[in-house]
Design a protein that fits this description.
Elements lengths: L15 E5 L3 H10 L4 E5 L22 H4 L8
Parallel strand pairs: 1-2
């Protein structure tokens, strides 16, 4: 992720977070915990633990990106 400036210079609703592939995890985490104007993910991982399997084998998976963004608005 890249930030060019200080947070005081820009209102949160003007910040768009972009995450691609492995960077989608931190981007989703950031967007879930801080007010931002939007989130763009490309080739996002469903979960770090599910990179090798199609089933959820870890019920304590704290990196479950799909759960974190399940209620977010979607633009196709």
């Amino acid at each position: 992720m890249s930030w060019d400036g200080s947070p005081e210079q820009l209102p949160p609703d003007r910040i768009i977070v972009l995450g691609r592939s492995v960077d989608s995890g931190p981007s989703i985490e950031l967007s879930a915990n801080y007010p931002v104007g939007g989130l763009i993910v490309e080739s996002a991982l469903i979960s770090v633990f599910r990179m090798k399997t199609q089933i959820a084998i870890f019920p304590f998976d704290k990196f479950n990106n799909l759960r974190k963004i399940s209620s977010a608005p979607v633009l196709y």
